[in-house]
Amino acid sequence: MMDNLPQDPYILVSSINMQLRDNMYDSLESLCNYFGKDINEIKAFLKQYGFEYLEEQKQFR
């Protein structure tokens, strides 16, 4: 398991999606809480690169 979330937006999306897909965390909120990150900051950061979080699929696209 990772100690920190990646800073690169493309690696970050891949990492978050993998951890949610593999059921390491039950939600984006729980993943953000574990890493001490604000969920809205993560969403806003990734939105700058064209990624939107789809709650029902539990992934960024």
Describe this protein's structure.
By secondary structure, the chain is mostly helical. It has one domain. Helix content is 49%, strand content 7%. It is built from three helices and two strands, in the order H-H-H-E-E. It has a two-stranded antiparallel ribbon with strand order 1-2. It is globular and about 25 Å long. The protein starts with 8 loop residues before the first helix and ends with a strand. The model has no long low-confidence stretch (mean pLDDT 94).
Would you kindly provide a brief summary of this structure?
The chain has 61 residues and is mainly α. Helices cover 49% and strands 7% of the residues.
Shape: globular
Secondary structure category = mainly alpha
- Helix run count: 3
Largest sheet: 2 strands, antiparallel
The number of distinct β-strands equals 2
Strand order of the largest sheet: 1-2
Rg, Cα atoms, Å:
10 Å
Give the N-to-C terminal Cα separation: 23 Å
Count of the domains: 1
Order of helices and strands: HHHEE
Helix percentage range? 40-55%
Low-confidence spans: none
Average pLDDT across residues? 94
Strand content is 5-15%
